[in-house]
């Protein structure tokens, strides 16, 4: 099992870009507003679904979002998390008003669309839902959390690769202006450290940080890049502090706030200064990345980095269970 997992994780450039234009049953080239790339949504139990629909189905969308239209949606969605289930009827009505057809199964959905947004707020059914999309050979964006466990996240990426289906997953916080600038525009020179924070409310059915902590952890990894070697976790009744040590000796921290009203952000420290992240800037920057992914079928994020993010969170849980001892990420990635 270790050798199988190790060989998969090393093949980072192949995942998400395995399928060529000619191998898919449609072309994403030359699409216009009159002949758009048809998007299907799985899961109307999250505010992300109507938010993305409004962006793509706008009368005059941003140029980067032009040539797409959300045409169909399968509402479910969590059937066990009450706070998610209760939102489904209202979000059904919202997307119907934007011209979206509601369908009764994922199998029906994939027959009507070119690409898929897997938006189900509950990460537990993502593996089963993604398998139906992979079978249909449709490029797919999977919203956070990519799955309800690291094990399922790894299976999703491996099965996407085996099926030759492009996919990627991300929190919208990765694409805040300053976060993106630190990573891609050398805004503060080499990043020496980062302190990130976000709400970290709990959902008992998910590993601790997977539910909302993912947002702040994704900020941390966007700034620091991959290569975290170990984590140590410290807990109080009101917050969680996870200290990560990178292979080059740099230190990055994530602070998750359990209660109260807290924003998403952090501070990155570089050789040319420091930069503050936050507040949340909405879903449009992520939608633009999704649109580019649907056109090119190339993930903007190395799959190994996404898997490392989930290994970081699972290692943080293990550290907490063991009273705050240091836990190596490779004990998760290669177990």
Automatic annotation (TrEMBL):
InterPro entries per the UniProt record, alphabetical: Gfo/Idh/MocA-like_OxRdtase_N (IPR000683), Gfo/Idh/MocA_oxidrdct_glycsds (IPR050463), NAD(P)-bd_dom_sf (IPR036291), TAT_signal (IPR006311), TAT_signal_bac_arc (IPR019546)
Cited Pfam families: GFO_IDH_MocA (PF01408)
Alphabetized GO MF terms: nucleotide binding
Endpoints of the signal sequence: none
Transmembrane domains' residue ranges: none
SUPFAM superfamilies (UniProt xref): Glyceraldehyde-3-phosphate dehydrogenase-like, C-terminal domain, NAD(P)-binding Rossmann-fold domains
Domain Gfo/Idh/MocA-like oxidoreductase N-terminal: 38-167
Protein name: Tat (Twin-arginine translocation) pathway signal sequence
Organism of provenance: Algoriphagus alkaliphilus
